[in-house]
Amino acid sequence: MFGLRSLFSTDIGIDLGTANTLVYARGGIVLREPSVVAIQAGSKRVLAVGAEAKRMIGRTPGHISAIRPMKSGVISDFDVTEAMLQYFIRKTCPKTQRMFSKYFRPRLVIAVPSGITDVEKRAVEDAARAAGAGEVFVVEEPMAAAIGVGLPVGEPQGSMIVDIGGGTCEVAIISMGGIVHSYSVRAAGGDAMDDCIARYVKRVYNLLIGERMSEMIKIELGSAYPMAEEKTLEIKGRDIVAGLPRTLTITSEEVREALKEPVSKIVDAVKYTLEKCAPELSADLVDRGLVLSGGSSQLRGLDKLLSDQTGLPVTTADDPLSAVAEGTGMVLKEITTLANNKSMS
Question: Tell me: the pLDDT tens digits for 263-299?
């Protein structure tokens, strides 16, 4: 039976993020798509998923809604999350598995925030099974990220990971294969940064800008620390007073000011976790420092700011956006090895 399963089934690791979903299968990341679903109002019929659906945000007619079903790393719309997972599973699995899906459902490893409740965790598992998964294994995001970036999580010494995604900032100190201390902040991810930029532009310039414009400003000008070369960017939106389209220029200094709140929450989360750390683990971190992962960890100067604030060496993962997904893939390999050994014994 196990031989047939390996022939017809593709097991999957999923980083089910607030902003993006990454899927690990067949030895690597095979899919990267925005966590967005376009549905027909009333019937909830799915019209588009991923990048195609994201292009519709803010541009849909009344009978179509572009929805992000994940909020702060957890499910906010169960049915739409199920439809999104079903799309990703079908897109990942080979045709032979889809033909025999009744008998060979894929096993899933899904990463979830460390601060998730039992109810929220169960909702993720239920949505995955309803979308076509067989066995569902849940791994905490900071642990998956630490494994994905290659930290020696199994050794009897401390490693620290700070994973900043679209919805959450996850800080964890890991030793001997487990999380010793962790702290999860739901208002310090990329979405919170976008929100702060939009609010700043509205307050200072009376200009309403959309989600995509806020994200572009963050990517082009966002920073957590004064940079050697400050930049400017022309942005477009709707004037609140006149109600007409307007263009203006914003500077990187202004964007840094707008991002002070979420950046401060990230710094505070790191400090709080370090305060809870045992002296022996603190000694390990003096030399090893901490590693940044997650798409929003790429904010310019964040590593330097954290290093200044904590006195620890700070490095950013080579591919921070892929860290959690790579980690789920490695966990998946362990499960497969255990299943192999079990079937042979």
Answer: 999 999 999 999 988 899 999 999 899 999 999 999 9
Q: Are 114 and 199 in the same domain?
A: no
Instruction: State how many domains the chain has.
Output: 3
Contacts of 182 (CB under 8 A, 6+ apart): 114, 115, 140, 142, 170, 171, 172, 173, 273
Distance CA 74, CA 17 (A): 8
Task: Give the structural domain span for 234.
Answer: 190-260
Q: Which two tokens stand for residue 232?
A: 């400017």
Domain membership of residue 306 (yes or no) is: yes
Report the mean per-residue pLDDT for the chain. Answer: 87
| C-alpha–C-alpha distance, residues 223 and 41, integer Å | 38
For the question of whether the overall pTM of this predicted structure is more than 0.90, the answer is no
Last residue of a domain, one of 240, 260, 280: 260
d(CA 108, CA 111): 10
Strand, coil or helix: 305: helix
* Residue 195 domain-assigned (yes or no): yes
Distance between the two ends of the chain, CA-based, in angstroms? 14
Say which residues have a Cβ less than 8 Å from residue 121's Cβ, sequence separation at least 6. Answer: 112, 138
